[in-house]
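User: Please run a holo structure prediction.
Assistant: Happy to. Please share the sequence and the ligand.
User: Here you go; the ligand is magnesium ion.
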Amino acid sequence: MARLLEFDDVHQAFGDENVLRGISFGMDRTDVEVVIGPSGSGKSTLLRCVNRLTEFDAGDIRLNGESVTAMDVDALRRRVGMVFQGFNLFAHRTGRGNVTLGLTEVRDIPSGEARRIADENLARVGLSGQADSYPAELSGGQKQRVGIARALAMEPELLLFDEPTSALDPELIGEVLEVMRDLAEEGMTMLVVSHEMGFARSVADTVTFLDDGIVAERGPPEQLFEHPERDRTREFLGELDT
Amino acid sequence: MDILPLQAGDWAFVGTNWWILMQGLYVTVLLTVGSLLLGFLAGFPGGAIEVYGRGPLRSVVRGVGVLLRGTPIVVLIVLFFFGVQWPDIGAVPLGGLLPLPAFEINGQALLASTAALGLRSAAYQSQVFRGAIRSIDEGQLEAARSVGLSKLEAVRHVVVPQALRRSIPGFQNEFTIVLKDTSIAFAVGLAELLTRGFELFTQPAGQTAVVEIILTVSAIYFVLTFLTNRTLDRVENRFAIPTGE
Ligand SMILES: Nc1ncnc2c1ncn2[C@@H]1O[C@H](COP(=O)(O)OP(=O)(O)OP(=O)(O)O)[C@@H](O)[C@H]1O
Ligand SMILES: [Mg+2]
């Protein structure tokens, strides 16, 4: 059976800067993969290639064996959720309104039903009381949880997280990681760019170290963190600790 | 230098002829509303094309905008009146609402003035909307795209509602300018407010009432501007996005 997600020698350049230089790895259903790597190593680009916010130059990315480039882009995005570092909530819509937009416009769900589904998903991320609040009225952690609910409500096969906690005050990181941990336990397949080592250690099945556009090292968290094979990995982990 | 004295008799002249000014006001309001509406209908898509469009369409929209903004409005009105073959709709009957006596205006002058003021307003409104659209951060559009909305749907549901709110102050400005610039329809003899004032003080009995008439006309423009701005302030507050402060 085809793997849920497969990167096959993916290349992407911006101008003459080669950002991804041949990425290959795969994930199965319910896997949680954490991607780490220095700034500019191509982590965000890698995620954005999956839902084609960035159209990659060469190689292939397959979802359930089907090349994403062959799919209708909106249909692809409906199947792959994304959670952003900067939340990117719709400022003019309430928490609930943020979740319903995709339901009514993309899944063609009638508005009453969409509200019900939205409230369910907001409850799932612990925001039952904030459905009527506007983004500007929410804390960073609450905003990010709305962002997660918005993605979840589409019932994606795969969730992409691009540094979901790095814009948060330290005291707000925990509530977001908690939600992600629950999702992992429920069997959600997640590809997560994050430098939250505790989360990676306890939740990730596999950690990928991306460096300068290539997969420099990849393995289970205990192996990659405790016994990295490459000096470059060790060096990077050392920088993270300090 | 002496300031002309205001005289009770001249105020009385304004009073007995108030309905002539009201007929002018009627035309002024009609022209303002028509021009702003045309300006909105052409300017909003124009602004969107300037941001999202590409190729020749965008270049044409930009070019026309620069041209319209760079031409004096009186030139535009005269050009549109004498240079365009308008359908002959004859005299347009207006008024007749008690207590305003019925009257007629030149249909072609009305069309030419509305077109000139409306298209020029579109050129300015497009810049208001362009700025408002640009001020909405890209990330929201990406988020909408990420749940599967098409670009058009994302712009419609995420960018447009926020951009419209942010356009209100710019639109207020534009309203004030268009309202006062309707007086330039004077140049093609359209019987709007200022033209009617002019008619009054060129009558033999009105010759000493020039200042009184002009003051009255100004007061009418001012009251209209004031009331409309207040209304738009309300609209802005009504639709403001809660900030939690
Ligand atoms: N749309 C773009 N146009 C041009 N260059 C880009 C674009 N997107 C990314 N880049 C460049 O590609 C490189 C990799 O960017 P990317 O955002 O993928 O890195 P990252 O690993 O996510 O970094 P960070 O940890 O800072 O988020 C950077 O040098 C960036 O400037
Ligand atoms: Mg990044």
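Residues 18-52 of chain B form the longest helix (35 residues).
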